[in-house]
Amino acid sequence: MKITTKHIYRTRYIELVMKTVLKIFILKQLMKEKMSGYDIMKRCEEVLGYKPSPGTIYPLLKSLERKKIIEGKKEGRRIVYKLSPRGKKFMKEIMMAKEEFYRKLHSQIVAMEEVFGDEATIGWKEKIIEKYPLLPKIIFMLERMGNKRANEMLEEFYRRLKDASN
């Protein structure tokens, strides 16, 4: 495969988006409780289905601390982080922006379905997610697994559903 400038920019863009999402995830966790870098890595693994490396987490924490969005306090051998007043204000703004982002994303999905999709499928994803809000999290976690393991789990889940519905 020939690597082009376009490919490099696309890769950098994806990395930037992923780091931004990770930063917001970290801040959301710190809204709930004080946590160390290790605690944050464990929470990522529990909730997101992957464990970022220390080389990813600690530079992000230091960056957020330099920007005064979080505050770190040494407790024994570890540093425990919490949201600063500036961080709380920032997260309030992020949560308000999230609603607008979802509205715009939804309108784009509807437009794409209208342009490219079948009339019968328009809006079906939103209806399913509204009815089963855990599905996006489950799909995200399955995407992080290998195909074989994910399919094995889905087959087991399907078998259990089928047994339960009989």
Q: What integer is the average pLDDT?
A: 83
End-to-end separation in angstroms reads 50 Å
Low-pLDDT segments, ≥5 res = none
Count of β-strands: 3
DSSP summary: helix tally: 7
Give the radius of gyration.
20 Å
Which helices and strands occur, and which strands form pairs?
Layout: H1 5-32, E1 35-36, H2 37-48, H3 54-66, E2 70-75, E3 78-83, H4 85-116, H5 124-131, H6 135-144, H7 147-165
Antiparallel strand pairs: 1-3, 2-3
Outline the structure in words.
With 166 residues, this protein is mostly helical. It has a domain at 1-83: Winged helix-like DNA-binding domain superfamily/Winged helix DNA-binding domain (Arc Repressor Mutant, subunit A), CATH 1.10.10. It has helices at 5-32, 37-48, 54-66, 85-116, 124-131, 135-144, 147-165; strands at 35-36, 70-75, 78-83. It has a three-stranded antiparallel β-sheet with strand order 1-3-2. Helix 2 (37-48) crosses helix 3. It is globular. The mean pLDDT is 83.
Question: How would you concisely characterize the structure shown here?
Answer:
The protein has seven helices and three strands; from the N terminus they run H-E-H-H-E-E-H-H-H-H. The chain is mostly helical and 166 residues long.
Short key terms for the protein model shown above:
Arc Repressor Mutant, subunit A, mainly alpha, 7 helices
